[in-house]
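Researcher: Let's try something more involved. This one mixes different molecule types, so please make sure each is placed in the same coordinate frame as the others.
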Amino acid sequence: MITIDLLENSFELMEKEGKVNLDISLPILDKISKEIHNLKEQRIKEKYNSPQKVFEIHHLSLVTLIVLNSIRNRLILSTKDHDNPISVSDSLKVLPEIKEAFLRIDQKDPDETFLELASQIQLNASQNKLFNLGMCGGDNLNGIFLEIAKEIELS
Amino acid sequence: MVEHKIIVDTSVLVAVSLNLVCPEIGNIQIEDNFYKISKPLFDYFKDCLEKGVELGIVTSEIEIAARSQINNAFLKKISQKLKIKYSIQNLNNYSYSLIKINDALNQNLNLLTRIPINEKEIKKIVNTRVIKFYQNITRHLDNINPVKTIKKRIRSSYFKTFEKKFAEEDERSNLRIFSKLRDKLKQNPPRSNDYRILAQAIYIKEKDRTGNLYVFITSADYHFSKIRIEDGTLNDFIPSEIEKRFHIKCDWPDEILNILINNNH
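Model: All components are placed in one shared frame. Result:
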């Protein structure tokens, strides 16, 4: 949560300065992805006897990680794509929902469904060109996680 | 010049978005029962939009309801196909497909126009006209008692045997359909969302000053459109009453497309 706030502050500063700073943003993005990934694993272990809840946690985490990964990729390409600092401005539009997702996954016994929030995040991210499924290949879900995990490890 | 506006109900939005070959396990095909008759209408919307003509309409309420319903509709379909219970079996492998389904919904929503609604007016139409309309048709269905009608006809005829035969013949569809429709309406009455959709259609229709605007609701929901009774018969009592009372045509998407293409109102 604190890390997401840190990212938001950094993005606001970069937007003001009109320039993406990869040295600052990428480590924070990777840290958030790791935190969400770990939190997901922990919650899934706790909820193993409720497949419905497990699916919701899994799906919301996946959508959130895809968005974070899309932000990461767009920032890296921002200079080359003349997307600087629009990529940061667009990212700022999706961060409040990423924060919300983190809070929901962090809840021990959430009442409400996560699927609607996942749909909302997907829509908002798509509208801001931050939902890139290309990396998934579309073959299987575990592949998506593996790819994201690999990228996090490599970073 | 004649103008058309088609309000797309949640059921059709979900139907047109729910079609996917799930790559995760065995390329399972997931398809809503209404997909095949909904898709051509959306293709038509797309063609018209490219020519600058906006036909399809959606309200924020319909959009929110579709987003919420599509997730459950997808998981239900997967469970049916795999013959498992969602509540007891892990479906994590289908997350990618759910993302694709949501993506399809977003793309379909992009073909529709969001219309601003005067909330005060909508509430007024719901409270003063729409609720009353559904109450009246339920009461009307209550009064249609085919057995009573047959007896009455036999009583007032000299040729009782013939009259019984004719009356039974005439009332056959009523005997079969109306009681089922009445029971259905009582067990599953329109919800506030349904009232509001009809109210929004009335609002759009009445706001038009040209007199050239045709407003439609395309829906698979029997609170608006025709219904297929268990024996396969189609009944259009509710849409006929809506059209008579409010001049709004409600039908399945393929029929609406047929009207649009042939300009056949």
